[in-house]
Amino acid sequence: MRIDAHQHFWRISRGDYSWMDPGDTVLYRDYTPENLQPLLLRHDIQRTILVQAAPTVAETEFMLEVAEGTPFVAGIVGWADFTASDAAGTIESLAANPLVVGFRPMVQDIPDDDWLLRPDLAAAFRSLVEQRLVFDALTLPRHLSRALVIADRYPDLSVVIDHGAKPFIRERLLDPWRADMAAMAARPNVACKLSGLVTEARADWTIDDLRPYVEHLLAVFGPERLLWGSDWPVSNLAGGYDRWMETTLELISGLADAEKDAVLGGNAARIYLTGRGRP
Predict the structure, then answer these.
(1) Residues in the chain with pLDDT < 50?
(2) How far apart are CA 240 and CA 46, in angstroms?
(3) Under a CB-based contact definition with an 8 Å cutoff, are residues 103 and 63 in contact?
(4) Which residues are within 8 A (CB) of 121 and not within 5 positions of it... i.e. 6 or more apart?
(5) Cα gap 91→127, rounded to integer Å
(6) In this predicted model, what pLDDT tens digit does every residue of 118-172 receive, in sequence order?
(7) Alpha helices (H) in the chain, listed in sequence order
(8) Fewer Cβ in 10 A, N or C end of the chain?
(9) Taking CA 90 as the corner, what is the angle to CA 89 and CA 95, rounded to the nearest 5 degrees?
């Protein structure tokens, strides 16, 4: 079964997508299940993981409403304020819905690079462990040393790095991202999404621009801890769903069939849906 481990829906009128530019003619519009379903059918993708795009509980509740009416959504990665005094209670309450499979603070947008190390986040991280939820790490390369501390501090926490931590592909820089990702991969509780790379590349990107980054992720995580995701509709900024899927298939063409199946769905099922989501 193929699973898209990272996609979004949004309704602009909800008003909490503060990162979105009203002048962006690609993203500043509604994206709904009806828009995504033809793409899933074209690529034989049966299920998806729907990921938050706004730092509000209200958006998480919106995603749950959408997911409950959308059979192909297997689970959602929501948002909660990890710094709030009632963070653990909020996480536990939302996790009562089996569609909730993880949480994602938007670390990349937080000015404090040391935010992950704040002592008042401990209750939220412990709650994720207790509820068997995934911590989706939306980080940039400079955050990886802090994410490593979290992975070590909570060895029973399942950590999934979004978008390969957004390496500097357009600048063609591999270091120090390369060493930091190897350190993260050395932790058995850490996996990584093969997603979001095209929007870190130049507008005229080619497969060879992405190849060294994907090859490194395959080398350090192995095909058993990489999860393919479209990052749709954000990927529409850089070639779209079809091109990213076709590029992925070429980049992983050297893997055995069972390894390809793991990257394209098996790992997402194991990490996100075991004990949660829809069977």
Answers:
(1) 277-279
(2) 19
(3) no
(4) 82, 83, 87, 115
(5) 7
(6) 999 999 999 999 999 999 999 999 999 999 999 999 999 999 999 999 999 999 9
(7) 33-42, 57-68, 87-94, 122-130, 144-153, 177-185, 207-221, 240-251, 257-261, 267-268
(8) C
(9) 100
The answer to whether residues 58 and 32 touch, using CB atoms and an 8 Å cutoff, is: no
Q: For the sheet with 226-228, list strands across it.
A: 3-7, 47-51, 73-78, 100-103, 134-137, 158-161, 190-194, 226-228
Question: Rounded to the nearest 10 degrees, what angle do helices 57-68 and 87-94 cross at?
Answer: 10
pLDDT digits (tens, 9 = 90+) for 25-44: 999 999 999 999 999 999 99
Q: And the tokens for 40?
A: 């899933």
Q: How far is CA 224 from each of CA 41, 68, 172, 228, 269, rounded to the nearest angstrom?
A: 25, 29, 26, 11, 12
CA distance 58 to 80: 10
> Which residues have a Cβ under 8 Å from the Cβ of 30 and sit 6 or more positions away?
10, 11, 12
First to last CA, the chain: 12
pTM over 0.90: yes
Three-class SS of 173-230: CCCCHHHHHHHHHCCCCEEEEECCCHHHCCCCCCHHHHHHHHHHHHHHHCHHHEEECC
Place of tokens 């994907």: 214
Residues in the chain: 279
DSSP 8-state code for residue 96: T
Helix (H, G, I), strand (E, B) or coil at 168: coil
Q: Are 221 and 178 in contact (CB under 8 A)?
A: no
* Structural domains of the chain in order of their starting residue, each with its CATH number: 3-273 (3.20.20.140)
User: Which residues fall within 8 angstroms of residue 233, CB to CB, at 6 or more apart?
Assistant: 7, 8, 26, 27, 31, 35
